[in-house]
Design a protein that fits this description.
The chain has about 280 residues and is α/β, with parallel strands linked by helices. The protein is about 30% helix and about 20% strand. Helix 3 crosses helix 4.
């Protein structure tokens, strides 16, 4: 057993075009957050300052056998976000002018990955469109365009303001509350689609005040899942958001060791939030 949990991170993809070949790339924020996560190993509190995970970058593979082999290598999986949309028209939804579908190769790859993770109960952190895709693969639905699908929506995407943030309301009986602790939380936001009906495997962890589901988690104790609509890996995130990666990597380490997943984060979250407020006020 390696000293660090191995975390698979999915990559982006652009198909070949007339002036350039096909291209795959990885947002460094995802794998940097995995390596920078601070976790406790084997219940040793003094090890809190040790780096957590070893990221393995998984490109959009095309063969199911290769995808299965890749997922066999990891202790956890980060389904990353995408600037483009889940292609819900192929899933029977009506077209919409705001939809900009991601490349079919990436979506097919991640759908297969999600199905295997569900079958094998591989821990998953699903971010942005990854959260939407996982929910749909597991039987849930999606909202095509928030401004038209909700009666009184808040702004979730601004084409000229990359630092848009909004409040989220966290359920107290949730993993996310254990991670963040009490207090007001604001998150970055750049999406026009969202989770609609939640798959039966999940429960709501947080909503935006307009009702949009901003986070969910697994109801199955044998399958650790955390899905968040915002981007904790992004430069517009707060320092508090790093605790999402710490909680995930900690859970992956506990599960691979056969230990009970225990996340002692509320007190740490409150302390971190106080430091953040002091920094902003300075």
């Amino acid at each position: 057993m390696t000293k660090k949990p191995i975390i698979g991170v999915t990559g982006d993809f652009r198909p070949a075009r007339q002036d350039a070949g096909a291209l795959s790339w990885f947002n460094a924020g995802y794998f940097d957050c995995v390596t920078d996560a601070k976790i406790e190993t084997a219940g040793n509190n003094k090890a809190r300052n040790c780096p957590g995970g070893l990221p393995i970058l998984i490109p959009p593979l095309t063969e199911d056998a290769d995808i299965a082999a890749a997922i066999d290598m990891v202790d956890g999986l980060v389904i990353t976000g995408c600037a483009l949309d889940v292609d819900i028209v192929k899933q029977g939804y009506d077209p919409h002018p705001a939809l900009r579908p991601m490349p079919a190769r990436r979506e097919k790859f991640e759908r297969t990955l999600c199905k295997l993770a569900m079958e094998r109960k591989i821990p998953v952190l699903a971010i942005g469109s990854g959260m939407q895709l996982l929910n749909q693969v597991c039987g849930g639905t999606l909202l095509r365009h928030i401004p038209e699908d909700l009666p009184k929506p808040l702004q979730h995407r601004d084409p000229v303001e990359p630092n848009l943030r909004h409040l989220i309301e966290i359920e107290e009986d949730s993993l996310l509350f254990d991670i963040y602790g009490p207090g007001e939380i604001r998150v970055n936001s750049q999406h026009h689609m969202a989770v609609g009906q939640l798959a039966k495997q999940f429960k709501v962890s947080a909503r935006c005040p307009d009702g949009v589901i901003e986070a969910y988690e697994s109801v199955n104790e044998k399958w650790f899942v955390l899905g968040v609509q915002w981007h904790p890996e992004n430069g517009t995130s707060s320092r508090l958001d790093m605790q999402i990666f710490e909680a995930f990597v900690q859970a992956c380490d506990d599960i691979r060791r056969g230990a009970k997943v225990v996340l002692p984060f509320p007190k740490l979250a409150s302390q971190q939030r106080d430091r953040e407020r002091e920094r902003v006020a300075a």
